[in-house]
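Suppose a classmate hands you a notebook page containing two proteins, each written out with its sequence and a corresponding row of structure tokens. How would you begin to make sense of it? This section walks through that situation. The first entry is reproduced here exactly as it would appear on such a page.
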Amino acid sequence: MLTRRYNTTDAVTHERKTVTVDISRNTDDGYYYSAVVKEMPGLIATGETLPELELDLAGAMEEWDITNSRRDNNLFVFSKQAFLNMLSEKLDNPTSMKISKMSYLCSAYYAGTYGTLEDYPDFLISSDYVASKYGMTDSYFLGHKIEDKPKLKLIFNATLSDNQKHNIRLFIDNFLKQGKSVDDFSLVLRTKEDSVWKDNYVEGNNTPVSLEDIKSEYINKVNNRGEK
């Protein structure tokens, strides 16, 4: 194992800081390098070569800063890009449309369930949703494709306990089992059923919808589902 000290800049506060990075060479599945950062619990970077490792490490540290910043500490479970990467790996036929809709629905149901509990972050990821002609859409997908961004590790907010992480994993796994094989068109129609889309969509426009409005609707959906 090789230990290095890295000088870097916090992605949120823009303050200079020094971190301790432990680098290992792994041989369990071919040769590759991995790195962990002492000051950033849960962060793991990998690469087949040291330059690839350093590139992955830089992206992972930036995502960790954003997810675990003081500003966001009690708001979000994951960084958005890492969560979208995870969906692209687990969904059947992971088109950008499908990833966008599944991300929205999973995030919305999380907000209406675990997001209401005192010790859990309010939201799964930080996203700017809009009411578009394709239903509820993360504005990220209006100008990007998932393959445009580097793959990043899915790292939990550092404030979460092991039990909380376990509960959130089960929640996501159960959600994906129910929806991973649903086709794109059906997912578009499903998101158009939501009041946040019906009340905000204007033909030809992409109308911003707040996370708080989505959370409010899904709290009602979860509370009233037994009455339907």
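The notebook's second entry, a different protein, reads as follows.
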Amino acid sequence: MSDNSPSFLNQGDTILPAFRGEIEHQKVPPLSHSQIFFQDQELVRLTARKIPLVDLACFCLVSSKLFKTAAPILWEIIPTSLCLLSLLPGFSCVDGRWNLLRDHDANELRRFYFYSAFVTQIIHPFSSNPYRSSDLNPSIFDRLQAVLPDRPLFPNLRICIEPPLPDRIIYLDSPFFSASLRQLSCTVLLGMDERVAEVLTRAQLTKLAFTGYISPDSLIRIGRLCHLSELDLQFSKRIAFFNVAEGITNTLTLVLGNSAFLQHVTSLSLSLPRFISIGQLPLSSLANLRRLAIVARTDTINAILMATSNLVCASIHATNRNLHSLCDSVDILAHHCPTTLRSVTLKTNTLIRFRSLVSPLLAVRNVRRLAIMTRYPVIEVRDSDFLAVANAWPLLEVLDLPSKSSTEQLTVISLHHLARLNHLRSFRFVLAGQVVSLPWTHLGLSEDLRDYMADLFPQEHVRRDF
């Protein structure tokens, strides 16, 4: 370095070492693994969605920062509204009935509304639950709503699902639901028309399932829902006692036959008592239907099938005991959906001749699943039937026949026909008095039949039973 260089550069050999020493003296210690984890909010959020609810509740107690992340996830899905009502002072069970022992002011409801804003789904478990909606006094929601009338109890609720059991009802009160509701499944009782109408008017439902008493007025409102894509209506048999069967029949025919109704419905599940029939009237509003599950008389089934053309999955349960009528329904199904049909489930309470029932479907080349369910035996099942199935449905994945099927004419040749299906992953039927299934098991099979199964189906199809 020349003598004309600035003086501070000449002193670098003394300044830099001193500066390094100061840095080393103030060096920040490295972060621990736990500190790195808790600083990454996205990682904490992902972890909170994977851990059990008990651990998630412990998360909320660690710090306020973790509480803000974990609490919305913890309260996002609850099994019943009682989880939130239990936060209120004075909420208790007296004589087997949950009730509020006193009224509350707005300040006492702050905690309830804080957590209710997190709730997006109320999904009642189908198993037994100590909290039963039928044991809840419905006036509780009215009393809470009276304190803050302009604020819905569950402002962000999107899904409410209750198992359709006669002793469990959801209270269709307008304060209980908000405009955010998209999916609703519940039991409807006689006299709840006004509450049903309120819900159907306010919410933009995309999925709806009603069980019980569904009035003609409610049917009209359901038909006008412009966002509805999945509809499940299970009519109660008790409506016969209310002298409304004729009105429901006429209204249902109107809803299904008007092209302005149910325009966007792609999945329809319908269960009708025997005394309700829409006859052979032309229907025109089901062109977009992809999935159909129907329990009804065959004339009603046929009328609905004639209005479809793009079904992918069809489940047909004929309530009248007439095999020929069911075969007619299958024939209509195959005729109207020859290219789109993939899955067929047939249920009946009469004797079934396998070939006569399945023959119309053999023209549908893309069938992947066939299930037949009946209390009575499926008769006249032969090896030639399985050969026809293997030739007609090369993409078949599931074949399920009742265990009571009369299969005396079946031999192990039927297994050879099924082994040709490369996509087959599940079947069940009776062969030589033994239930053979795929995936198959060594238990309950004779030595000869085990050898056949081992030769025809590779090792990955063996189910290990211990």
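A careful reader of the second entry would note: Residues 22 and 217 are 82 Å apart (CA to CA).
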